[in-house]
Amino acid sequence: LVVYTGERRDYRGSSGEPQHHDANEAEKSPSSLYHLKKHQQRPTGNKSHCFSDCGKGCKSSSELTIHQRIHTGEKPYNCDQCGKSFTHSSCLIVHLRAHKGEKPYHCPDCGKSFVSSTDLKSHQKIHTVEKPYNCTQCGKSFVTSSHLTIHQRTHTGEKSYSCSQCGKSFIQSSSLISHQRTHTGEKPHSCDQCHKRYSDKIYLIKHQKIHT
């Protein structure tokens, strides 16, 4: 195996005349590039680089162990709430927040909260996309016309959704549905820690903070 060092050297051919091979010629040779790449992938005395069977390089043996779970399907971290399994402990930690109602990552643009930084980054894309629907009252922009319509009701005071039980009105149908549970007694949101139930998910999330 020849490893090219970039130095110019003279080699004697069959004619006995010096034959010159410079850096540019060596770089153009597919054979040289192939062997150089294979050489660089070989394990060396430096233990900080480990290679998986698929060729992926890892900085440590622990990183290699985690990566290999992709190939073996091993998921050693289990959720004691629902039994779901994960390849990495950090994934389990993020998953458990869904059970606890924890959302530590907040959007600086709209205040919406998320269980992971990945979900927050994905959400923030909606703030960078085109928003062609503008409110003439305050200038706020929206992605869809329906979102603009709902927003404009905060300026006009329009509340199109009324409760048939008490007559209370709301801007959105979702707010009406949540309100009607106060009449029916329905509490679909349950705490997985103490089993206390709530009519609205917002109240459940506030309650779950006492367990953390």
From TrEMBL:
Q: Which PROSITE patterns match?
A: ZINC_FINGER_C2H2_1, ZINC_FINGER_C2H2_2
Protein's cellular compartments: Nucleus
Give the originating organism.
Answer: Oncorhynchus tshawytscha
User: Annotated Gene Ontology MF terms?
Assistant: DNA-binding transcription factor activity, RNA polymerase II-specific; RNA polymerase II cis-regulatory region sequence-specific DNA binding; zinc ion binding
| Keyword tags | DNA-binding, Metal-binding, Nucleus, Repeat, Transcription, Transcription regulation, Zinc, Zinc-finger
Q: DNA-binding as a keyword?
A: yes
Note the PANTHER family from the entry.
Answer: ZINC FINGER AND SCAN DOMAIN-CONTAINING (PTHR23226), ZINC FINGER PROTEIN 397 (PTHR23226:SF85)
Query: Which residues are listed as membrane-spanning?
Result: none
Species classification: Eukaryota, Metazoa, Chordata, Craniata, Vertebrata
Its main subcellular localisation, reduced to a broad class, is nucleus
**Gene Ontology cellular component annotations, sorted alphabetically:** nucleus
Q: What's the name of the protein?
A: C2H2-type domain-containing protein
Family per record:
Belongs to the krueppel C2H2-type zinc-finger protein family.
Q: Which residues form the C2H2-type domain?
A: 48-76, 77-104, 105-132, 133-160, 161-188, 189-212
What are the start and end residues of every segment in region (Disordered)? Answer: 1-31
Q: Where is the composition biased (Basic and acidic residues)?
A: 1-28
